[in-house]
Known about the structure:
Elements: E1 4-6, E2 21-24, H1 30-39, E3 45-48, H2 50-53, H3 58-66, E4 70-73
Parallel strand pairs: 1-2, 2-3, 3-4
Amino acid sequence: MKIRVVSSKDEIETLSNDWEIVHIAFRPSDKDILSLVIKCPNVKAFHIPSSYKKSISGSTQMYLSMQGIDLLEGGVWGHR
């Protein structure tokens, strides 16, 4: 399975709608995560660095959980 790395907010608009796993390589706001969910309706998981997971609000984490989207932690050095 391929992982799409998104390095900035500007890249969100360039995504195709068929990505299932997206690595967010910047500190996303709640709005950025919602934009990603809208842009990629088939997304199954967002992969983010451990240090960024702490900044994701509880309501956003609950929304992702309700949508069946996993929030995974870790780096992507092997995927770049």
